Amino acid sequence: MSAEPLIKATGLVVAATGLSHFVRPELFESATKSAFPDNTLQHTYIDGGIETAIGLALIAPKTRKLALAGLLAYGAYLGANIVRNR
């Protein structure tokens, strides 16, 4: 059984979550504020753009490895900012 459908579905969910940062940014304010207490709305939009790009890149097999690397880097970036702002 191929993991392809699961990976594509994950990409769609990540991309949809990213786009929702632009539609309903208030839903992400508390989570974003813990990593970026200053200019939180701006960072909400930046995070939404990053998540949308990663999600779309996960869908296409040609960009999937790059998307996975981006996802790891993005997670490390968010985690480091959360720790730094405690």
TrEMBL record:
The keyword Membrane applies. It comes from the Bacteria. Keywords: Membrane, Transmembrane, Transmembrane helix. The chain crosses the membrane at residues 66-83. This is DoxX protein. It comes from Mycolicibacterium rhodesiae (Mycobacterium rhodesiae).
